[in-house]
Amino acid sequence: MENIYRFSVKLLNGETLALRSLQGRPVLIVNIASKCSFAPQLSALEKLYKKYHPMGLEIIAFPCHQFGRNEPLENEMLREFYQSHFNLSFHISEKVLVNGPDAHPLFNYLKVNTRGIAQNRAIKWNFTKFLVNSEGVLLSRYAPRTKPETLKSIIESQVSNESRPIQFAKV
After folding, report:
1. Whether pLDDT at 164 is above 50
2. What would you measure as the largest C-alpha separation in the chain, in angstroms?
């Protein structure tokens, strides 16, 4: 079965995150933009992360400038903005494309593996969310208007399905 573990993500801090390192944990993937009207969702995403990360949840945010030119910032300015305005502690990638021939391969995988009406459909706007289970398989795609807090029960069902406690390395 296909999963996200074959992909890597270049993070804003310069590190590369191999998604295989997230095996055994559910992952919420979101394309974001600092100037988007949905940017207040970042606070709600951080609350979800703080609550469910100890149970295994990971969140990876992908800044993207493809929609309404809502992500004009680059690299260090992006990191500073998200830290100073939202105090985000989850993973943030470098700016990516989510549609088109130069889209990040992870987003191509997510679009192709979405079941139902949105299958293989282009991402329409910032803050489209994808929930991946602890085996790296896409469970659900959520529209930009879907508030992160409405995902609590599905996230709880995924973190409660863990058969072993997650051990995190001290950094």
Report:
1. no
2. 43
Q: Quote the tokens at residue 141.
A: 């795609």
Q: How many CB atoms lie within 10 A of CB 4?
A: 24
User: What CA–CA distance (Å, rounded) separates 140 from 131?
Assistant: 5
pLDDT digits (tens, 9 = 90+) for 17-73: 999 999 999 999 999 999 999 999 999 999 999 999 999 999 999 999 999 999 999
Among 33-37, 72-76, 93-97, 138-142, the range scoring the smallest mean pLDDT is: 72-76
Order of all β-strands in the sheet with 91-92: 91-92, 58-63, 27-32, 129-132, 138-142
The pTM score is: 0.90
**Catalytic residue flag (residue 64):** no
Query: Which residues are bridge partners to 28 per DSSP?
Result: 59, 131
> Which among 90, 86, 97, 93 has a CA at the least distance from the CA of 38?
86
Contacts of 48 (CB under 8 A, 6+ apart): 28, 57, 59, 148, 149, 151, 152, 155
For the chain, domains (ranges, CATH) are: 4-159 (3.40.30.10)
Find the catalytic residue in 4, 28, 36, 88.
36
Token output for 112: 């192709």
**9 φ, ψ to 5°?**
-130, 130
